[in-house]
Specification:
By secondary structure, the chain is α+β, with helices and mostly antiparallel strands. It is built from 23 helices and 13 strands. It binds adenosine-5'-triphosphate and magnesium ion. The site of adenosine-5'-triphosphate has 10 residues, from β2 and α7.
C-alpha cells in the first residue's frame, strides 16, 4: 500500500506544476475575464498537477458558450477545432499544449438512451457536481487561481481514494460508464475505490449494457495500458462488470491448469500480463495494448477445451486455436480495428508453438515457419511466450528461458543469412510458367506453394536446383 500523500507536499507540487503552465492559464484566463466570462482549469489536469503527473492535456470549463469560446481563442491559439459543439467542447493547440474548453454543463443519462442528454449549466460548482469522482471535481479559476473543491477532492486525493461527489447509485444511474472509469482510474492512479462505490458498482453492473461498445472499449484500453492494470481488472471481476464487458476473464477463475500447480488460470493470466509488461521495453515505446491484451486473452480457450482424462489428467487441446477465435469475437464486439484484432488473435493462436522446441529440437525449417507465421508480431510473440512461464520451479523456468534465448539466437542467425521475414520461393510466377510451359492459373499457384515449402524446408536454393525440383514435382503430379 502506498502511504497517504501530505497536503503540504501537494501544495508544493502544484506550485511547481503551475509554473510550467503559467503563460497558458494567465493569458487565456485574462482573455475570458476581459470578455466577462469565467474560466477554470478542471478535472484531470488539476488532479494530475497535485500528483506531479501533469501531461500536455489541459481541460478547462467556462461560462462562455462554444461560439464565444471559439472567438476568444482566435488570434491566441495555434490551431482550433470543434470537438463536438453539441457537447459544448472546443479544442485548440497552443505550443505543446492541447487545450479543451467545455461550457459548464449538467448532463443526465436516460435509462434507455445511449446518448448523453446535454444541458448547459450556469455555475462552476454545478459543473463540478456532475463529474465522476471527487478527485476529478476540483478546479482552479484563472487568472485568479482560486481553488474550488466543493466535494473534498483534495482529502480523497491525499488518501488515494476514488469517491463520487454525490451518492454513487445516482452518479452511475446518470452515466453507467463511470463504473468503468472507477476501475480505469484505480489502474491509472493506483487509488482505492471507496467501499460504497464498489457496492454500487456491484449492484448496478448490468447497467453498463446501455453504454456503447466504443465508450466501454476506450475505458478498457486505458485501464489495460495503465501502470496498475491488475487493480482495475480485479475490480471489474469482483464487481461483476467484467461479466458484461470481458466475460472471458472471470471465466478463467474456474479453470485449473493441467499441472494443478497454479492457483488457477485466472491468476496465471494476471501474472503473464505483468511479466509481459516487464518486457515491454523491448518494443521501444510506451505501454503496448496489443501485447497486454494478448497476455490477457492467451488462455481464454481453456474453459471450452477442458477435458478430464483418465488418471485425473486435465487437458486443453487446441485451446490456442479456440482462444484465437474467442478473442476475435470479443474484440469485434468491442469494435476494435481489424488490425488490432488480427494482431492479438495471431499472438493467442501462436502462444503455444514454442512448446515443441524442447532443448532446441526444431529444424531450421520449423524456425523459418515460426518467423513467417508470426510476421510483424514476432517481437510480441517473443514477449508473450517468455511471459507465459509462471512456474515456481526455478530449474524449469531457467531451462525454458535458455531454450527461448537459443531460439532467438537461431532466428537472428537465420535472419542475417536469409532475410527470413520476407521469404519467397526461389523462382517467381513468370519463371514457373516459362519452365513448365503453362499459362496463368491454379497450377501456377500450386507450383508457387510447392517452391515456398521447399524454400522453408531446405533454405535458399540455386536457380538450377529450384528448377530441377520444380520439374520433378511437375512430373510426379498425377
Ligand atoms: P485522461 O485525460 O488522462 O484520460 P481525465 O481525468 O482528463 O483523464 P477525461 O476522460 O479526459 O479524464 O475526462 C475529463 C474530465 O471530465 C474528468 O476529469 C471528469 O471530471 C470529467 N468526466 C469525463 N467523463 C465523465 C463522465 N462520464 N462522467 C462524469 N464526469 C466525467
Ligand atoms: Mg482528459
Amino acid at each position: 500500500m502506498p502511504s497517504p500523500i501530505r497536503i503540504s507536499d501537494v501544495e508544493k507540487t502544484v506550485a511547481r506544476e503551475l509554473e510550467r503552465i503559467a503563460p497558458i492559464i494567465d493569458e487565456l484566463g485574462t482573455r475570458f475575464r476581459d470578455a466577462g466570462h469565467e474560466l477554470a482549469l478542471v478535472g484531470g489536469p488539476v488532479r494530475d498537477a497535485m500528483l506531479g503527473r501533469l501531461q500536455e492535456d489541459l481541460d478547462f470549463t467556462t461560462s462562455a458558450h462554444p461560439d464565444v469560446t471559439e472567438k476568444l481563442l482566435k488570434g491566441w491559439a495555434d490551431a482550433i477545432w470543434d470537438l463536438g459543439r453539441a457537447f459544448g467542447t472546443i479544442g485548440c493547440r497552443k505550443g505543446e499544449w492541447q487545450v479543451e474548453i467545455t461550457t459548464y454543463r449538467s448532463e443526465k443519462y436516460d435509462a434507455d438512451s445511449r446518448k448523453p442528454d446535454v444541458a448547459y449549466g450556469d455555475s462552476l460548482v454545478g459543473d463540478l457536481g456532475r463529474r465522476d469522482f471527487t478527485v476529478n471535481s476540483m478546479a482552479l479559476t484563472v487568472p485568479e487561481r482560486a481553488f474550488e473543491d466543493p466535494f473534498g477532492g483534495i482529502v480523497d486525493l491525499a488518501s488515494r481514494t476514488l469517491r463520487t461527489p454525490g451518492r454513487p447509485e445516482d452518479s452511475f444511474s446518470d452515466d453507467p460508464l463511470r463504473m468503468m472509469r472507477a476501475a480505469r482510474f484505480a489502474a491509472q492512479l493506483g487509488f482505492e475505490v471507496a467501499p460504497d462505490v464498489v457496492a454500487a458498482m456491484t449492484a448496478m453492473a448490468g447497467r453498463i449494457e446501455i453504454i456503447s461498445a466504443e465508450r466501454v472499449r476506450d475505458e478498457l484500453v486505458k485501464l489495460i495500458c495503465a501502470p496498475f492494470p491488475r487493480r482495475g481488472l480485479t475490480l471489474l471481476v469482483e464487481t461483476g462488470l467484467a461479466a458484461y464487458v470481458l466475460p472471458e476473464l472471470p471465466a478463467l477463475a474456474l479453470e485449473r491448469d493441467e499441472h494443478h500447480r497454479h492457483k488457477d488460470v485466472y491468476e496465471h493470466t494476471l501474472i503473464v500480463l505483468e511479466q509481459s509488461i516487464d518486457q515491454e521495453a523491448r518494443l521501444g515505446q510506451g505501454p503496448d495494448f496489443v501485447s497486454r491484451f494478448a497476455a490477457l486473452m492467451h488462455d481464454v480457450g481453456k474453459p471450452k477445451t477442458r477435458r478430464f482424462e483418465d488418471g485425473g489428467v486435465v487437458t486443453f487441446h487446441h485451446h490456442d486455436v479456440v482462444g484465437a477465435k474467442i478473442t476475435r469475437k470479443r474484440m469485434k464486439a468491442l469494435r476494435f480495428s481489424n488490425d488490432q484484432i488480427e494482431a492479438v488473435a495471431k499472438l493467442v493462436e501462436l502462444h503455444l508453438r514454442f512448446h515443441g522446441y524442447g532443448d532446441g529440437e526444431w529444424t531450421d525449417s520449423a524456425v523459418r515457419r515460426y518467423v513467417r507465421d508470426a510476421g510483424d508480431q514476432l517481437e510480441r510473440l517473443h514477449i508473450l511466450t517468455r511471459a507465459d512461464c509462471t512456474t515456481r520451479n526455478q530449474r524449469k523456468a531457467t531451462r525454458l528461458r535458455k531454450a527461448y534465448d537459443d531460439l532467438e539466437e537461431r532466428i537472428e542467425r537465420l535472419s542475417e543469412e536469409e532475410e527470413l521475414a520476407s521469404i519467397r520461393p526461389d523462382l517467381d510466377g513468370t519463371q514457373i510458367m516459362e519452365i513448365l510451359g503453362i499459362a496463368p492459373g491454379r497450377e501456377v499457384g500450386e507450383a508457387y506453394k510447392f517452391l515456398l515449402e521447399l524454400r522453408m524446408d531446405e533454405g535458399p536454393q540455386s536457380e538450377e536446383a529450384a528448377t530441377a525440383a520444380l520439374v520433378q514435382w511437375w512430373a510426379d503430379r498425377v
